[in-house]
Every structure is written in C-alpha cells, then in structure tokens.
Specification:
Blueprint lengths: L17 E4 L4 E5 L2 H22 L15
Antiparallel strand pairs: 1-2
C-alpha cells in the first residue's frame, strides 16, 4: 500500500503487504489484515457509486449545489 504523497523511487522493490510512506518512499511497516479488508471494502463501494453516477441513478452525490455559490 502506497501512502498519499509518497514518492516511490524508480526500481524500488516493495514487498507484498507493505506500507510505503515518505519522500522518498520507504517501507514503514506491514499492512494489517484489517487495513486490507477495509481498503477492499472502500474500493468496492467506490466502484459501485461510480457505476451508479455514470448510469444517472445518483445525479448529485452531495445534493444540488446552491445557486448562489
């Protein structure tokens, strides 16, 4: 798992199930089973919502914007 903002150098070897953070990106620790499960669930939810938005089933994810904004 690569953290937001991390910069992984070219040719870096990242072991499976590792968390990479920083600039340059470094392995800081193993990823827990809970983190993996949560990431899989969040990704599935995101894909589901994206498909619904693309189909027009959910036209405004946060409600209609105010007209005076």
């Amino acid at each position: 798992m690569i953290a937001a903002g991390a910069v992984v150098p070219p040719g870096a070897v990242i072991p499976p199930r590792s968390l990479v953070m920083g600039v340059p990106g470094r392995v800081v620790r193993p990823v827990t089973e809970d983190e993996i499960a949560r990431t899989v669930a969040i990704s599935a939810r995101y894909r589901d919502l994206a498909a619904k938005y693309a189909a027009g089933a959910i036209p405004w994810p946060l409600g209609r914007p105010d007209s005076d904004r």
